[in-house]
Amino acid sequence: MDFICNFPFFSILISLFSGTICSVLPGKAAKWVNTFVIVLIGAMSAALLWYLLGTGESFVYMMGHFPAPWGNEIRAGVLEAATALFFCIVMLLSMWGGRKKLMEEVEPSKHNLYYILVNLLLSSLLALIYTNDLFTAYVFVEINTIAACGLIMIRQIGRTLEAAVRYMIMSLVGSGMLLIGICMMYDLTGHLLMSNIQESVTAIIEEGTYVIPLVMAIALMVIGLAIKSALFPFHAWLPDAYGYSTISSAAILSSLVSKGYIFLLIKIIYRVVGFRIFHDTHIINVLFVFGLMAMIFGSLSAIKENDIRRMIAFSSVAQIGYIYVGIGLGTQVGMLASVYHIFAHAAGKALLFIAAIGLTDVSGFSRKFIDLTGAGYRNKIAGIGFTVGSLSMVGVPVFAGFVSKLLFAQAAVNNVGKMLPTLIALGISTILNAIYFMKTVIRIYTPRPDAPYESVAIGKEKLYAVSIVLFIALNIMLGMSSQPVVDAIHAGLEMFG
Amino acid sequence: MGANLFVNYGEAVAAVLFGIGFGNLLLQKNLIKKIIGLNIMDSAVYLFLAEKGYIIGRTAPIVTGGVQSVEAYINPIPSGLVLTGIVVSVSVSALMLSLTIRLYRRYHTLDLDQISLMIKKEEET
Amino acid sequence: MSRKKTEQEYRKTFAFHFFRWLNGEKDPYLGEVEMKPQEPYKETEEEVKARIREKNMISRRLYGVAKSKEMKGLERFYKAASIIFCCILIYLLLFTVSYLPPVGTADRPVNNEVPQRYIENGLQETGAVNIVSGMILDYRAFDTLGESHVLFVATVTVLILLRLDKKKKNDGEISIEEAEANDRIYEPKNDAILQMAAFVLVPIIIIFGIYVILNGHLGPGGGFSGGAIIGAGLILYLNAFGFQKTERFFTEKTYKWISFGSLSFYCIAKSYSFFTGANHLHNIIPKGTPGAILSSGLILPLNIAVGLVVACTMYAFYAMFRKGGF
After folding, report:
1. Distances (CA, A) of A261 to A137, B13, B43, C123, C142
2. 3-state secondary structure C225-265
3. Out of 3.40.50.300, 3.30.1380.10, 3.40.50.1980, 1.10.287.3510, which CATH number does the structure's domain B9-124 have?
4. Please, what sign has the CA dihedral across residues C272, C277, C279, C281?
5. How far is A37 from chain C (nearest CA, A)?
6. Which chain B residues are closer than 8 Å to A237 by Cβ?
7. Chains meeting A at 3+ CB pairs closer than 8 A?
8. B106, C171 contact by CB (below 8 A)
9. Closest CB from A164, A192, A212 relative to B99
């Protein structure tokens, strides 16, 4: 085995261990540890991705001295490595972009605790990406949930505390269902390791004795994860949590945490249940319908909103709907579109949140649209960032969102039965997206000479500007050279099946 | 309904308890009662798991008298999973309780809906 | 019933004193001090008025929005939807349970080659007599590593929420001094019964906890349960003797370093064993003779580390909940 095969294990353990280290460091040192760890893991994931693209084969890594059905295992393929790399980039840029706000909004003595949470969140995301074992996945889902709750309430105002409670309640409902689903799965198959479960599941379907409880177990796991990733009727906690937490948290939560659960869901669909069997159950239609509803109702709520950050949060609901529609189409192309949209949405949404904070800061800390008039001139870099993010979300060519919409349309055309509703919903949702995002862009570029607010020079907040510029580059890169990314995702999904 | 409902009575009880806990978590307005609902739900899962491992006439999986045959002991895996589950539930309860303390200190009520109304009022003024 | 003694004579007998003590009319600890019942809480008329005014104001301000028809309808809809959802969930779960393999039989899918190897070879491969310990700390150690970090991240969130760092008062929050003052209410007022009980019980509880931890690989027990027992002992000690006594051996610094030390030991030790296992290297940690106290490789030190973390965490939870500091 090559040494590079240790990298997934190193990434998980390093981020886990750095969390412990940060607990005894002062805030400033913890900040450096955090940056260093994210960069290191990103570099390792990049190396791993390069290696895997070279060999073209996934590998499993034994966690301990005992082989497959007895010990724990992690597994790495192209898709896993690419997602890990992408998550590291988005996390690093989100941390940079929100650093100044973090200093203002969090008590100085609790800075190091924030970095502990971020490190542990990263490790749990990596574990969700790499794991090959259902119960390990459950344990790290819980770390992810608690750390995310910590990120929400680290800015201790009434709104965030309430949002944290609501988030916890919804999440716990979700994890309860996930856990009982895993238990049933274990009861029926006798394994907790994904590859062994899949063998047993195929056998059960052929045999036909335990098909009913098997479908229920799958349904419970899928619904649990859907609740946790804020699919449409379960999104009540989301606007407050994203809208009022400190900006790094909002960017990380919207672009990474919910995506971690969705990635696990995709992994379960492919590696635990098997794509064909999952396609034959009716759960897929439920996901499809809720996804469609999320696309439309999320956008409608966003239009009604008069608060820029809550508007972006509601747009997340709609975008998660897109991902579930892609899964619900039940074709390989649909899945590809979903995975691509995970990337595109993560890049775009984090950029929007980071840019929005720059705009509100030069408008007297008000998030109302009326005060934001002309904010694009007062903080130029944030204005450009917001415009790029909006264009990407709406789906204008050159930016990332366009490619994912194109992929969704292709996938819809491939599936005859679900083509019409998908295309109609896609059209309506795009128009609604365009309405509320363009409204905002026009608003921030409407000159308002009598504005009583100071403007900010570009060079003044260097780290913030760097993060916005890199985010813009990421969006354009995903949009312009989408072919290698799509190819990598395709290869990764092939390795799953 | 299948044939095994009354054979699996332990699991059936766990299912009902899970539903009760779930209902408490969603319906109760009082935060403490919500947390109690959560704990009922977790306990139901542990009961469910414990039922999975049990085999009639066998003892706990601790090697006694050098006997090492599968015929002597119950399945150790569910017991291990329950242990992990308990730690998770302790952590979550601690987090929820401390959130409740903070909200109570600030708004002097445990009713989540009232708290959100008070927050809205607070922001308007 | 006729009385043989007069009232005055009766007052001098032992029986009279005994029954008075039994009825709670006299406290033997307080000598001849008279016990007065607490006065009922009385409000003056102005206070009542102020209270009612405040209540009305709050309900006007709150329910002006709350009791509108739309909200009421929404609330009812939410309730009905939740109840229906729960009933459906219970029904579905029961339905599934009725199709699950029967409990208690040996020929179920669960009883396959996995538990077979744990039971038949567990003693030789892990060195632990308690198969569950061997399973969670050796075969499936990655789960357990994650689990201990769940506890760690929960402590971090509790610290964020409840630890008081502000010296000064700041809109609505309480400062450290105020919390100290508030905490005096809970401080024991040298309660003789509690202190005596704690004096006897705390050493026993802590020794029992240590026994459970050290015996984790030999019998029922392990780091988490033992740590919880020790934590309970520490909390009892704190309740009996107050923060001034516990401060001498347990402060925030002790907590920080103990949990850091144990968790990093856990992380490093397990990383070593994962790394050697995956790369098929030789593991230098000896297994020892099964059944001896110093056996089963890493399981005993890991149990000790987990026990320390859990004991400190339980104590920290209590201290945080009570006053927001150690």
Report:
1. 10, 30, 24, 37, 20
2. HHHHHHHHHHHHHHHHHCHHHHCCCCCHHHHHHHHHHHHHH
3. 1.10.287.3510
4. positive
5. 16
6. none
7. B, C
8. no
9. A164
- Taking any CB pair shorter than 8 Å as contact, residues of chain B touching chain A are 2, 18, 21-22, 25-26, 31, 34, 38, 41-42, 45, 48-49, 52, 77-78, 81, 84-85, 88, 91-92, 95-96, 99-100, 102-103, 106-107, 112, 115-116, 118-119, 122-123
Provide the domain limits for residue C72.
45-99
Task: Write out the H or E segment, with its range, that includes residue A90.
Answer: helix A78-97
User: What Cα–Cα distance (Å) separates residue A221 from each residue in A137, A267, A419, B119?
Assistant: 12, 12, 27, 35
Across the interface, do B106 and A168 touch by the CB < 8 Å criterion?
Answer: no
Task: Say what the ipTM of the complex is.
Answer: 0.94
**Do C78 and C198 have their domain in common?**
no
Are C18 and C76 part of one and the same domain?
no
Which residue type, as a one-letter code, is found at position C251? T
Provide the number of structural domains found in chain C. 3
Mutation choice for B interface testing from C92, C95, C97 by most B CBs within 10 A: C97
The ranges assigned to domains in chain A are 282-497
Q: How far is B36 from chain C (nearest CA, A)?
A: 16
- Give CA angle at C243 (C237, C244), nearest 5°: 110
The type of residue at C261 is: G
pLDDT one digit per residue (tens) for chain C, 326 residues:
555 677 777 777 778 777 777 776 665 555 555 556 667 777 778 888 887 877 777 666 655 554 567 777 888 888 888 889 889 989 989 998 888 888 888 888 888 888 888 888 888 888 888 888 888 888 888 998 999 999 999 999 999 888 887 665 555 566 666 777 666 666 666 778 888 999 999 999 999 999 999 988 888 888 899 999 999 999 999 888 888 788 888 888 888 999 999 999 999 999 998 888 888 888 777 777 777 777 777 888 999 999 999 999 999 999 888 887 77
CA distance C134 to C128: 5
Q: What is the dihedral of CA C146, C152, C158, C164, to 10 degrees?
A: -160
Indicate whether C195 and C262 sit together in one domain.
yes
| Same domain membership, residue C178 and residue C265 | yes
B56 contacts C105? CB cut-off 8 A: yes
CA distance A161 to chain B (A): 7
Q: Do C130 and B62 touch (CB under 8 A)?
A: yes
